[in-house]
Design brief:
The chain has 92 residues and is mainly alpha-helical. It is built from five helices and two strands; from the N terminus they run E-E-H-H-H-H-H. The radius of gyration is 22 Å and the shape is rod-shaped.
């Protein structure tokens, strides 16, 4: 919990307040964006198993299936765009 300034009246209010108690102006708080950190090295070494370990189950299963269908060629290609691969399957 921290004190922030109201955008309308300029008085200090709690950052958890839905509206300013002084002027009644609603306070919009945007949820923090979750930034995924995907390691290309770990993806290269462990492929889809790395994604499964990190909790990205859709991306992990997709990487393993794609690797099997391409004769493990995708295992060497996916690490170059691992972040985009995970974001496309897990949503951003």
């Amino acid at each position: 919990m921290a004190l922030v300034f109201c955008r309308e009246c300029g008085k200090q209010i709690s950052d958890l307040a839905a509206s300013c108690p002084h002027c009644g102006a609603p306070q919009k708080t945007e949820p923090p964006k979750i930034e995924r950190e995907v390691s290309g090295l770990w993806t290269f070494l462990f492929g889809g198993f790395y994604f499964l370990f990190k909790g990205w189950f859709k991306a992990g299963i997709a990487a393993l299936v794609i690797s099997l269908f391409t004769g493990l060629i995708a295992w060497f290609i996916i690490p170059f765009s691992a972040k985009k691969f995970v974001d496309s399957f897990e949503g951003k």
